[in-house]
Design a protein that fits this description.
One of its GO terms (molecular function) is oxidoreductase activity. There is one protein chain. The two termini are 26 Å apart. The radius of gyration is 19 Å and the shape is globular. By secondary structure, it is α+β, with helices and mostly antiparallel strands. Helix 2 packs across helix 5 and helix 3 crosses helix 5. The protein has nine helices and twelve strands. Bound molecules: N-oxalylglycine (OGA) and nickel (II) ion (NI).
């Protein structure tokens, strides 16, 4: 493993402890360049727009027969890279429970949470920074990151023991997320003209990876100067985001505009990650998104990441490489790929762009 990733470049300060100190100014490290601030370019452009809403209930009779849903998801992936799903089949009791246990976790005393402090080597545990570059700008959020699949890398020693139900509920939530992602993978396979299992097999079949990041964005005294999470695209395959439906914060890039997502109660937000962009030779693009924070309310979100098997080289599938659209990306394993974000932190779409080395 890369020696750079042994430890953080400077002591990690939980954003929650800054927020709870009563400070009225945020430390300089959190102040973004003017162009990156929530009030920067594009911030007032996309007010009337919203990401598509897709009813997955129509898939109940099987994916293959549902051309309308396949079309809707395919259009959403091309136009937005993001959509909300309703009637998604995920048990709402489990959804409520997983939000409940993680809200409770972030309320634990700081010394309890710090016992699970993470390192950049695997990122598992409680953390407050992405990337190991010294003196880089920091985001106004804390998180808890954990691995769910493959089973051999799931390490319960790094999971909270309090609240007591956290493990069981998080695992159950994870299983339901895997099912949902597999449905979406089938739809995407069909929409690209392949058989239903095609993309999952490209991801390594039964050996796919899954991990989760619970994001906690404390109240911020100067929200107009910072971001909860800087602009980035997700490095993996698919992301399912369970967002606080009372407190908006997620913004998705649409052309030059930043469009705020208003979560529908009970819905889940799905987006395509860089690995789908690579496999599909950019038929579907992973889209940049960011999080804004606010002065009045904290916000919690749970991002579930469905990823390819980590040591499998991934490249555009041959059928999508043509004379008009040559192979855009070179092959790389997901292990190699995610080293980039682990070092540099969220940095727009520079990572997938860097694969354009043909
Ligand atoms: C992420 C992410 C958005 C949010 O965790 O990758 O984009 O609303 N989260 O927390
Ligand atoms: Ni993201």
């Amino acid at each position: 493993m890369d020696s750079l990733l042994h430890d953080w470049p400077e002591p990690v300060v939980a954003v929650q402890s800054i927020a709870e100190s009563g400070a009225t100014l945020i430390p300089n490290k959190y102040v973004k360049l003017a162009a990156d601030r929530p009030t920067g370019p594009g911030s007032s452009a996309g007010r009337e727009l919203s990401i598509p809403i897709i009813d997955l209930g129509k898939l109940a009779g099987g994916v293959i027969d549902c051309r309308a849903v396949i079309r809707a998801i395919s259009d959403a992936c091309r136009d937005w890279g993001f959509f909300q799903v309703v009637n998604h089949g995920v048990d709402m009791e489990v959804v409520k429970a997983v939000l409940g246990v993680w809200r409770e976790f972030f309320k634990l005393p700081m010394e309890e949470k710090k016992k699970l402090a993470n390192s950049p080597r695997t990122y598992e545990g409680y953390g407050s920074r992405l990337g190991v570059e010294k003196d880089s700008s920091l985001d106004w959020g804390d998180y808890f990151y954990l691995h769910l699949l493959p089973h051999c890398i799931k390490n319960f020693d790094k999971w909270p023991t309090v609240p007591g139900a956290c493990r069981e509920i998080t695992e159950e939530y994870g299983r339901q997320m895997v099912n949902l992602c597999e449905t979406v993978m089938k739809v995407l396979s069909m929409s690209l003209g392949f058989n239903v299992e095609f993309l999952k097999e490209k991801f390594g079949g039964e050996e796919i990876g899954a991990c989760m990041r619970v994001n906690y964005y404390p109240k911020c005294p100067q929200p107009e100067l910072t971001l909860g999470l800087s602009a980035h695209s997700d490095p993996g395959g698919l992301t399912v985001l369970l967002a606080d439906d009372q407190v908006p914060g997620l913004q998705v890039r649409k052309g030059n505009a930043w469009v705020t997502v208003n979560p529908i109660p009970g819905a889940l937000i799905i987006n395509v990650g860089d690995q789908i962009q690579v496999l599909s030779n950019a038929t579907y693009k992973s889209v940049e998104h960011r999080v804004v924070v606010n002065e009045a309310e904290e916000r919690l979100s749970i991002a579930f990441f469905y990823n390819p098997k980590s040591d499998l080289p991934l490249e555009p599938v041959k059928e999508l490489v043509t004379q008009e659209r040559p192979q855009l990306y070179r092959a790389m394993t997901f292990n190699e790929y995610r080293l980039y974000i682990r070092k540099k932190g969220p940095s727009g779409k520079t990572q997938v762009e860097s694969l354009k080395a043909m």
